[in-house]
């Protein structure tokens, strides 16, 4: 499944004329396997052993390329660093208040909210974002033990 996704992503990069370097391939592979919505720093830390010449800036550049092609979405949360999501299908996120973990949450898109907002405010709605917050199963366990 992930292998298939990886091949698909690689061919999309090639079609867009993006050169596939080993680092770029590794960043892409990491993203597709990661369900944690990593930050650029997370990716850097995971791969620096394998690519001693890689810097956080390289990771950022790769992510920028992926974002421009539409392979990843950048999620921004206030001041904290962006997280990257390679699940580009419509979904919502649930976020742990304790550890900051973000998990995908599938629910039919709330399109009614968009049309309601349009009617009420006269805005032309482009998209909406919804986040649910709580304590993840791991942190819940941790908290119970203390
Ligand atoms: Zn947690
Ligand atoms: Zn997601």
Automatic annotation (TrEMBL):
The note describing how and how many cofactors are bound reads:
Binds 1 zinc ion per subunit. Binds 1 Mn(2+) or Fe(2+) ion per subunit.
Kindly list the places in or outside the cell where this protein is found, as annotated in its UniProt entry: Cytoplasm
Keyword annotations of the record: Cytoplasm, DNA-binding, Iron, Manganese, Metal-binding, Repressor, Transcription, Transcription regulation, Zinc
Which Pfam families does this UniProt record tie to the protein? Answer: FUR (PF01475)
**Family matches, as SUPFAM superfamilies:** Winged helix' DNA-binding domain
Q: Cellular component terms, GO, for this chain's entry?
A: cytoplasm
The entry marks the following residues as binding Zn(2+), namely 96, 99, 136, 139
Q: Where does Fe cation bind?
A: 128
Q: Which cofactor does it need?
A: Zn(2+); Mn(2+); Fe(2+)
GO molecular function per UniProt: DNA-binding transcription factor activity; transcription cis-regulatory region binding; zinc ion binding
Q: Name one GO biological process term.
A: regulation of secondary metabolite biosynthetic process
Q: Which family does it belong to?
A: Belongs to the Fur family.
Which function does this protein serve? Answer: Manganese-dependent repressor that controls a regulon of oxidative stress resistance and iron-storage proteins. May act as a hydrogen peroxide and organic hydroperoxide sensor.
Q: What name has this protein been given in UniProt?
A: Peroxide-responsive transcriptional repressor PerR
């Amino acid at each position: 499944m992930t292998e298939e996704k990886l091949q698909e992503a690689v061919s999309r990069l090639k079609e867009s004329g993006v050169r596939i370097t080993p680092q770029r391939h590794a960043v892409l592979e990491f993203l597709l396997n990661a369900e944690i919505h990593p930050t650029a720093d997370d990716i850097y830390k995971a791969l620096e052993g394998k690519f001693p010449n890689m810097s956080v800036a390289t990771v950022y550049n790769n992510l920028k390329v992926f974002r421009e092609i539409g392979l990843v979405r950048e999620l921004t949360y206030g001041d904290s660093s962006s997280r990257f999501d390679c699940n580009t299908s419509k979904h919502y996120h649930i976020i742990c208040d304790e550890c900051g973990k973000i998990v995908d949450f599938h629910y039919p898109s709330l399109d009614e909210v968009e049309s309601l907002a349009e009617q009420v405010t006269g805005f032309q709605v482009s998209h909406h974002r919804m986040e649910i917050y709580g304590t993840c199963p791991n942190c819940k366990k941790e908290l119970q033990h203390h």
